[in-house]
Amino acid sequence: MDLDRAIGVSAAGMAAQSTRLRVVAENLANRDTTGQAPGADPYRRKTVTFAARLDRATGVTGVQATRIGTAPGDFPERYEPAHPAADARGYVRTPNVDSLVEMMDMREASRSYGANLSVLETTRAMLQRTIDALRS
Description:
Layout: H1 3-29, E1 46-55, E2 60-70, E3 77-79, E4 91-93, H2 99-135
Antiparallel strand pairs: 1-2, 3-4
């Protein structure tokens, strides 16, 4: 694999993990966002789906965030009868966002982003050394 291809693979990985980090941040920001009326759905956790992507120009397969979807499942309920979205029983449906899961996703995405960045920096350094050697 030549160095240009290595840069392309690393850049694709960084872009995919950047999307994942953005979605995690959105989930964390909305972990307390409930509906505004009784029976209204609260914020639903978003998820990212990845797929392999072939760059026909270079012949390199990289990763791409292909879809941002929503997580299935029930919404937890919290007893809060004074809330505008409380049902007749006094319960409010809350988002299906688990802060612990989001933090773990954020940590994994951050480490993956960092690994791709390291590959990119190493490849760039190799290219610079090649250029320096050709100048001599």
